[in-house]
Amino acid sequence: MQNFAYRAPASTTDALRLGTGTGARYIAGGTDLLNLMKDGVQRHDLIIDLNRLPLHDITPTTTGVRLGALARMADVAAHPQVRRRLPLLAETLLAGASPQVRNAATIGGNLLQRTRCWYFRDASMPCNKREPGSGCAAQHGQNRWHAIIGGSAHCIAVHPSDLAVALTALDATVHTLGSGGARTIGIRDFYRLPGDTPQVETALRSGELITAVDVPSTGLTGRYLKVRDRATFEFAVVSVAALIRTGGGGVVREARLAFGGIAPVPWRSAEAERQLIGRRLDDAAIEAAGRALTLPAAPREHNAFKVPLVRRALATALGGLR
Ligand code: SF4
What we know:
By secondary structure, this protein is of the alpha+beta class. Helices cover about 30% and strands about 20% of the residues.
């Protein structure tokens, strides 16, 4: 592990002032960053510990629940207002990570965790995300875990957060604070596709902090389905966050479908949602949604299995909502 300076500011003003320095990095739960630093994947001269900032609260709002950026995953999942008004969110958080990690990891940190691409996490391998211009070892390497939609010739890594998938289905809003002031960013504008700059993963500006996430209560019926290689602590091979509202005769009035494990960002599929609107949630409608979802898929050598897998996962999730 490299040497670095450590500061723990007590105010956001001080945190932002420290965060504008080159080589500075914020830390919250540390469940991802410390591993990256130990493995030599990331190097930082100054670590700014955010845990003294007043960003821990979980607060009911008129439209839903506001999650402080430093709220722990376990606390959010167990919060009575979250369980009552946002059951999909609680279900998703409990499907992510181990109990130990959920006790330490924060909402803001979860959204900013780095990809699990093994070439990214091996500092000896070429990786455009870790070292722009060095190449992408996954394009013709072992790409079983990689994207089938939304990748580029520069990067095909998938986003690892379960939480981000649920927040994408829920149309959450991310609140940030930087030297230019406060901003609100819709979750669907928060993440960036890799294009030719895979090192730029989010809309956050240099030194900017996540302060909170607003999650609206939709009243829709939902389910988070995570397919993983083993039932214990593991990242998703594919995942589905499905929210449905049906009207008279079981006809679908509203559908929101977001997916993990298939794209470099939490993937919302308007095409798949359209296939469900105005129809009963029968096998034909569900199959049409799956086809629409995977129409743009461009699998690589080792991950073509994700196309039928994500369609089956969608069918299972929606089947449970009938
Ligand atoms: Fe790096 Fe992305 Fe290629 Fe993985 S897929 S090696 S993260 S550039």
